Amino acid sequence: MSTKSKVDRRDFLKVGAAAAGLAGFPAIVTAQSAKLKVGMMLPYTGTYAPLGIAIENGFRLALQEAGGNFAGREIEFIKVDDESEPPKATDNINKLVTRDKVDMVLGTVHSGVAAGMVRVTRESGTLHIIPNAGFAPGAGA
Questions:
Q1: 4 falls within a domain
Q2: How far lies 111's CA from each of 2, 114, 139, in Å?
Q3: Is there a domain that residue 66 lies in?
Q4: Which residues lie below 8 Å from residue 132, measured CB to CB, with a gap of 6+?
């Protein structure tokens, strides 16, 4: 009789977010020597808040396991609560990309918010990792 470890949704999300984050970093970390700015546009309030928190925790765990930095670059996190509100998505992502000049964006959970984010990140050429939303155009489909 074999024993298999049971993986719940939260563990799966943590691992998925961590893997997605690590996969996208090599090109970014070799481009500059200053701090790597990571915009985290996730739900921190409302129904999807537990998912947003789990995604952030998974990403931070991956960072910790990688020694706390990537290719010698310190990481600066800039967090935005997307509130799972699609009408606010464009303004929120524009602040991260234009004002804060993030190198990459991690988020979101809500597909309607992801739709607003994708337009901005594609136009600006900002790396965008969507760890949870089921928005097909965001996956390159």
A1: no
A2: 39, 5, 11
A3: yes
A4: 13, 16, 17, 51, 55, 108, 109
Is 40:96 a contact under the CB 8 Å cutoff? no
pLDDT digits (tens, 9 = 90+) for 28-72: 444 556 899 999 999 999 999 999 999 999 999 999 998 988 778
Token pair of 87 as six digits: 């009408």
Contact 110, 82 (CB under 8 A): yes
Which token pair is 79? 């967090």
Q: CA-CA distance, 138 to 38, in Å (whole number)?
A: 18
User: Does residue 45 sit within a domain?
Assistant: yes
In the chain, the number of structural domains is 1
